[in-house]
Amino acid sequence: MSNAYLSAFPRTAIKALAGFDVNFQANYYLPRAKEEPCEALAARVWPRVDTWLAQFEEGVNEPDLAGQGFLKLLKRLRIVVLQDSVLLRRRYPSHSI
Prior knowledge:
The protein is mainly alpha-helical. The chain is 49% helix and 0% strand. 2% of the residues are buried.
């Protein structure tokens, strides 16, 4: 799959367009990712995700790898949404979120 998308573009240009430091050759680093919100705050974003994941683990729902994967993704994105919300709040102070 890595050859199918954007293979003609140099990685340096793609990193620069995405806002990353092109001189930093190691893993990507986002300063806002240092801050981890507490679990109680993260649980307020998509609050039913934990319930649905628990139902999969208890066997209440029939096994569905795609569904479980999607719920795990949403659980991880909770943190990303909260980290990005600080920056978005500064840019758009009158927005309801």
